[in-house]
Every structure is written in C-alpha cells, then in structure tokens.
Description:
Layout: E1 12-14, E2 21-23, E3 25-28, H1 37-49, E4 54-56, H2 65-73, E5 82-87, H3 93-96, H4 102-114, H5 127-141, E6 146-152, H6 162-174, E7 177-183, H7 186-196, E8 202-206, E9 219-221, H8 223-228, H9 238-251, E10 256-259, H10 264-275
Amino acid sequence: MTTGVPNSRSGSIRLPGSGLIISRLGLGFAHAHLLDAATRHALVHRALDLGITHFDTARFYSDGLSEESLGKALAGKRSSVTITSKFGLLPTPLIASMGPAAMPARKVRSLLNKLHLVPYPRRSYAPEVMRRALQASLRALNTDYLDIYHVHEPLSDSAISDDLITELQKAKAAGSIRAVGVSGLAGNIDAVIARYGGAIDVIQSSESGWQGRSWVPDITHSLFADAARTAPGGVLPGDSVRRLLTDALGRRPEGAVVVQTSNTARLAELVEFATG
C-alpha cells in the first residue's frame, strides 16, 4: 500500500479524515469507452510520468470498461498508486459484454432514457449489491484492495441503511478497502454526511456547490465542466483554467482535485498549473 509523507514538491497530500496520501491531482476515468485501448493505456502512463498517482473510477463508468482498462494499465504499479472506485450506480452487464457493439448500444440506451422508456442510471445501495460490486471491482482492477470506496451519488440519506454502513466497515476491517467515502452533489450528500459522518473517511463532491456547508470535501471533481457551462462557446481559455485550478487547490490546502482529459498535453499543462 502507498506509504510515506506528503511531499509538496511532488504534489502529494495527506487527506485529514483518512490519513491516505494521494497526489493533489487525480485522473478521472469516467469516459474510458470514448478512447481506444492504446490511448487509454498511454494516458495512464503519461499521468504516472507527470507524478499523478491517484486514479478515480467506478463500477458504473463505461459499464465496467473503466475499471478493467485501469487495472491493465496499472499492472505492476499497484504499490505506488491510489485508486478510488464507487458503487451504487449500476452498470449494464449486457452492454459491458458487447465489445465493439457497445458504443451504438449506449446511444440507444441514452435515447430510450431521454424518451423516458428506460430509467438510467439505475441505483441500488443494498448491502448485497455493494458486496458483489466490490468483488467485481477488485477483479477488474486486478487488486486485493481499494484505497477509497465511495457510495456513488446517493440522492439522500434515505437511500443508505445502517446495514450498508456495517458492511462497509466490515470490508474496511478485512482490508478490502482502506477508506469509506461518499461521492455526489453537495446538496444530495448533505444529509448522508449529517447522519453517517462518523463512518465516512473521505468526502468527494463537485467543486461548485460545497462552499458554505458544514463540511469541506477531501476531493473535488467537475471543476472545468461546471465553469464551462457559463463560458462563451463552452470553452475555457488557458488563463481561466489556471485560475480555476489554483483557486480550487488553494481553497482546500489538504485536498485534491480529480481532472478528466484524453489529451496528454493538456494533462501536462494542468500539472504545471498545479505545481507551478
């Protein structure tokens, strides 16, 4: 497992609630299905070259392809990285098994969802679903433990039971996960944190929306996506990207930001902004 002490030169930080040491920038892997295998592999290895050692995935992402791809790319490097995965949003097993046909199937699923014919995403936070998802994630990632395991986007605390929290604590005690987390929109996870905060080691939310709440996220995401919604043409200029990233890291000196890009040059630029 990853050990050591925070090193500002390499851009690492110790998360206060869990004691985990992760890189201040993490690489999100939500859209693995949009990249070919060679590009996915190259992206992960470029991240490692740049000092990014924290990787964020979920069982839901790309219907399992995200975890599988990340597991292959990180082969032989497990002891030098940290991995977050999540459960609760359910992948579609049929699409996951379709290979090259998965992309058009995802488009059909999206259309059916827009027409309100097929609800998507589906959710389940039942303890038995968590146990199965955890084992599937461990197999796909080719590891025997996850550094952080998040409850993925619960809509309220009513979705989570005391039995689920007990099962997560059992998995932590068994060494299958190092830290229990919750990841979601700030307004949705407020009640979860209020009710189960004592059992939650890591909080992850979008960068927008958490300010002024009773908690501070350990990790944020969607920094640029949120800002781009109000930018002319939906495109952020380089100086805005730099400012957004440095401000986000400055607001939480003991926190990290997960970024997402398929462009290795942009990834290098973000590392320069974060460490420069």
